[in-house]
Write a structure and sequence with these properties.
Blueprint: E1 3-14, H1 18-29, E2 34-38, E3 59-60, E4 63-64, H2 68-80, H3 105-119, E5 122-125, E6 127-135, E7 138-145, E8 148-159, H4 165-169, E9 174-175, E10 187-190, H5 199-212, H6 227-232, H7 249-271, E11 280-284, E12 295-296, H8 304-308, E13 316-319, E14 327-328, E15 331-332, E16 344-346, E17 358-360, H9 369-375, H10 378-398, H11 407-416
Parallel strand pairs: 1-2, 1-8, 2-5, 8-17
Antiparallel strand pairs: 3-4, 6-7, 7-8, 9-12, 10-11, 13-16, 14-15
Length: about 425
């Protein structure tokens, strides 16, 4: 028989990923009783389970534009892992990845977990919501986990699932486009020297493998790219899983199976190349990463015009900085921002339209598809998570909804905890 627990908390964060871990830490550090329900085994989401251990972007045009708790966790991880930060004073131009920070995802998960425990967050792994109902003083969230059934009464609720699952369960609108970006299983191959390979032979063999079906569309993100270039990066972040979707258990399962099948095709093909007989997998993520599913319909929506124009919203809670980055079956061609432009994210884009005591942070932020292709990356998701955690903690203290929190107090709390808040 499963237990039937009843738990009370001030702030419940559903999803302990990129945004959720930071939201929980901020809420707890601000004095709110905080719980995190996470369906997986660790914190960090895309950066850990998804294998994207190269977060960005925290700097723009020679200055830091995102800091706070997420930045603190990144610095701790880099230090403990013996890593080196990029030189952010050097312009990266169109090569934005030069300012991404290499870190160990498993170590980041441990560092984030330590920060949660130290701040008093109650962590509930292997648990997920099955029903969300409004009550007089907030929400009742029914969850199920291995050996556990729980009803959590929470005064404030933060959806950090990435897919706006809680928002949908609570009866509020979410949207998605008719098409979605492909996902990627993060992996890295080794055991060969690219410089010693016969480049023309490799390219001929690659074209033949595509034509024969030995390799499938998406095995290399851009079929027109040189395969030698793919090998030079070990295949990291250079594969596409067409149709990858994390919105249900069935679709995430299909994405994982497709990603791993692609990896095996690639590995077997690479080992068939002269000079690559010893090719092997150095690292592979546990889960295929998904770039795009649902977005909430918020009290306002960040448009691509807002984003590329660098609009500073009157309720801005953080900056964002990344090129417009829509992946397709043909590959990706990022569209860089104009020199000096640094976009912002408004609090109202984290509030589902017509809701009370409810926030959503991270990839599902209210935005159009093009703006979302840039807002979805780690640094702005961390910053949105911190803002959501701060707003929820203040709303709990004052007995109001997050949209009613005094903006000046929210800004002061965020800055107290190291965040950078845009100034008009």
């Amino acid at each position: 028989m499963l237990g039937n627990l009843v738990t009370k908390t001030d702030v419940l964060v559903v999803g302990g990923g990129t945004a959720g871990a930071v939201a929980a830490i901020q809420s707890a550090r601000a004095g709110a009783r905080t719980m995190t329900v996470e369906s997986g085994c660790q914190l960090g989401g895309t950066m850990t389970t998804g294998g994207v251990g190269f977060p960005g972007l925290f700097h723009a045009w020679g200055r830091q534009i995102i800091a706070g708790i997420g930045w603190e966790l990144v610095l701790r991880t880099v230090e403990l892992g013996g890593g080196v930060l990029p030189d952010f004073s050097l312009p990266c131009g169109s090569r934005h990845w030069l300012h991404q920070i290499r870190l160990d995802g498993g170590l980041y998960a441990a560092v984030a977990e330590e920060a949660c425990v130290e701040s008093g967050v109650q962590l509930c792994y292997y648990e997920m919501p099955v029903a969300v109902d409004a009550c007089d003083d907030g929400w009742v969230v029914a969850t199920v986990g291995k050996g556990t059934r729980r009803r959590i009464r929470s005064r404030q609720l933060i959806d950090c699932t990435g897919d706006a699952d809680v928002v949908a369960m609570a009866g509020f609108e979410r949207v998605r486009g008719q098409e979605s970006q492909p996902g990627t299983l993060q992996f890295r191959l080794g055991g060969f020297e690219v410089g010693s390979l016969d480049g023309p032979m490799v390219e001929d063999r690659y074209r033949g493998a595509l034509a024969s079906g030995e390799l499938a569309p998406g095995d290399v993100a851009s079929s027109s790219a040189a395969f030698v270039s793919f090998l030079s990066g070990g295949g990291r972040n250079a594969q596409h899983v067409i149709g990858a979707d994390s919105s249900t258990a069935a679709t995430q399962t299909a994405a994982n199976i497709a990603g791993r099948a692609s990896l095996l095709r690639i590995l077997r093909f690479v080992r068939s190349l002269p000079g690559c007989e010893g090719a092997h997998v150095i690292e592979v993520a546990p889960q295929t990463g998904v770039r795009e599913t649902y977005r909430i319909v918020g009290e306002t929506r960040v448009t691509v015009e807002d984003y590329v124009g660098g609009r500073v919203h009157d309720d801005a809670i953080c900056h964002a900085f990344y090129p417009i980055d829509v992946h397709t079956e043909e590959g990706v061609k990022p569209k860089q921002l104009t020199q000096g432009v640094v976009p912002s994210v408004p609090l109202r884009a984290l509030i589902p339209k017509g809701s009370r005591s409810l926030l959503a942070a991270g990839r599902c932020v209210s935005s159009d598809r093009l703006a979302n292709s840039a807002l979805r990356v780690q640094a702005p998701c961390m910053a949105m998570g911190q803002a959501a955690g701060a707003a929820a903690a203040l709303a709990t203290r004052d007995g109001v909804s997050p949209g009613q929190v005094a903006y000046g107090e929210l800004v002061s709390l965020l800055r107290l905890h190291g965040a950078i808040v845009p100034e008009a």
